[in-house]
Amino acid sequence: MGREAAMALYGERRRRTALVHLDRAGGMYRRSDALSMLETTVSLRKVEAVGQLQNNCTCEVVFRDEETKEHAITQVVCVKQHRAIFADFHRQTQRLRVVRVPTCVPNEFLSAKLKEVDVTVKHIAHEINAADGLMSNVRIATIECKSVDAVPDTLRWSFDGLTGVALLFIKGRPPRCHRCGARGHKVAECTSPRRTYASTMRGDMDGDGEDYDDDNEEERGRAPEASQPTAESTANNQDQRPADQPTETATADSVGDGAGVTSERPEAAATAAAIDVKKTFLRFLFRARFLTFFYFANVFFIFKNVH
Question: Considering only Cβ atoms within 10 Å of each terminal Cβ, which end of the chain, N or C, has fewer?
Fold first, then answer.
């Protein structure tokens, strides 16, 4: 069987598959217990396969058509006199925040862009700021993905002449430091030598990506976000900035605590101070030598003219 045929069969069976969650209070369940429930609910003639998943309290049922599956999901069933729950079979959903995209860009366009990186959007809408009740350009989406790590941290977009880089944040996923590229700490806590995030990730993200902690924002009750630059102004600033100069912007989450602004390490500050002291001392010595030479030259000429 070729790859295309295999993927087609996978999609077809997945659409006809449902999960059955059994009550743990029922103890150990046998295959015959699930079959008896299915016989009374839809008839075994409409069932293609039955199997166990994860543990003794979860099993999958592959029906012969999607209509039978939809009918079964709506039924209230019992197994061993304990209630069982039918559920649709799909990938785990995640909560996604999309920032740095103008409000006018359609959500349908963002859904299509996320689909290109194998992220299926189940629902997406603009966030409403809890403090002032106004709509924000931040999008809140419910997505399905293979794994959290498979979702990129940025997403390049281009729409009707506008271009930019959206920042993607998944609830529960640690923020990525844009200095060293590692997760689990912010740039203010990074001990790696200073370098841009773009050079670290080699094009995976732009240099203006900043750390962002979605959990901390929720604990603060969704504080009002700082104004964000438009796509045109961002592009102009990037054109005027030297290639080796890091960007020092911050998101709404990092503006409050200064986590998104790059700061020099204490060792680098001490070294710079020592260099300044040395330069000042050398300038003093040069001036002192010049004044001493000038003084003795005047004395010599005065003495010569007198005698």
Answer: C
